[in-house]
Amino acid sequence: xxxxxxxxxxxxxGVPADIAEPERALTANLDAAVARFPDRVALDFLGAVxxxxxxxxxxxxxxxxxxxLGVRPGDRVALILPxxxxxxxxxxxxxxxxxxxxxxxxxxxxxxxxxxxxxHGATVAICWEKVAATVAxxxxxxxxGVDLTAALPLVKRLALRLPLPPARRARTEMxxxxxxxxxxxxxxxxxxxxxxxxxxxxxxxxxxxxxxxxGTSGTPKGAILTHKNLAANAxxxxxxxxxxxxxxxxxxxxxxxxxxxxxxxxxxxAVQIAATIVLLPRFDVxxxxxxxxRRPPTFFPxxxxxxxxxxxxxxxxxxxxxxxxxxxxxxxxxxxxxxxVWEQLTGGLLIEGYGMTETSPITVGNPMSExxxxxxxxxxxxxxRVRLADRDDPAxxxxxxxxxxxxxxxPQVFSGYWNLPDETAAVLLPGGWMRTGDIAVMxxxxxxxxxxxxxxxxxTGGFNVYPSEVEDVLRKHPDVADVAVVGLPSERTGEEVVxxxxxxxxxxxxxxxxxxxxxxxxxxxxxxRRIEITEELPRSQIGKVxxxxxxxxxxx
Length: 556
Known about the structure:
By secondary structure, the protein is α/β, with parallel strands linked by helices. About 30% of the residues lie in helices and about 25% in strands. The radius of gyration is 23 Å and the shape is globular. InterPro entries: AMP-bd_C (IPR025110), AMP-bd_C_sf (IPR045851), AMP-binding_CS (IPR020845), AMP-dep_synth/lig_dom (IPR000873), ANL_N_sf (IPR042099), ATP-dep_AMP-bd_enzyme (IPR050237). Keywords: Ligase.
């Protein structure tokens, strides 16, 4: 093509073709927000507020506290936390030291945590009290326990002390005992002085984050993301919405911060523009609508099921969401009806985007304008190039209009997988091109649509589920001889996890009992929603189970 970026013609006014390459570490964005908007509310956690000046002070003290524990540049520090103010403080405190944040889902099982903690070798784990004992059982690390109730408004903290059944239940949900030798985050930070300005900070090319992903296989791998990667994607996301106002937006963090999508939009991008971040420990419709009355949202990132449920509940309750000007949907296809209902309710725009953990994560988005195109993931972000290549020969582009594997190039593309050079070489090609494993088609004006998936990843509720990981667990059951796990369409979650099981010789598989057994060993979103029994699984000539054929049979 004469112009290798035809999509620039559909960019809204004010969106640049390219961003300036980041020259400062991600922590500089927080420093700038503190300097420019010290009195602006940075965090709202169920009504308890933290200003940017207070956030900056807490980060400085937490960084010094972690330095006192021996954390040094390049050390990995595990964060195993739900959305809460302590999560934000810990994230930036670790980065201030030039250390590396490793995000983990606090709902992971012991086995899931054990693999990842052993892989990255963190020296310190900052974790929710409820998971501290699990961490202690699988890893030798310094554990710093976080009390979620310490971040609540005073009146809610006092209410939790009441000798009433609801208060006891709430305490049990939020708190847990710490194992012997564990430290308390709140005491540690309160006793620390702010870190001295003379203590060196990170460089823009230093590693900032290890984010675990299955990549193109089922084995979780740590994607290495630098300060430059994350800062670039925050800047790309900021300029993609030219109407965003520094110090004037309210972002809703209903997406988990331990997920690449939530981290970039609700943490790094939000801090870059000194937005107020409304933190919710989990997605709960009532909690979101109550918060909207107290502090109306202006920017709302989410996944399609969230928008469906919120729209229905807002209409039933008469909650006004007209403050929402911009919404971004990711992780799964956005149904046109969902977008239509949400835009009618808010009067704002809801667009679909696309990304991967390995790309910090966003590479493609629909224009934040009337030019958005339903059914498409959109066009490449500023400073992002894409190619559609032959699956078997990625050096060769497919002819215009034909489907090909989507390759991306840009400042947000990761530098590789942690300690896995072969896996890195398989996806990172010469010239900085990364293989996504997704098959796409492109229109003449640059809009992309995903038509197939090379990797047999299941995306349920915005979370990645790798079939082989679930299959490995189910094969450990004595009544199971073999199993294939696939994703089937679900209106509620995008896809649901379904397992097709071959019983062991002489065994009679009880599907409900096997489901309960799986739920005890897998995170809730990974556990199968249903189990089908079969005498044999379709296989290739070399004996590999053909998951696609399994899926097709179930759909038929």
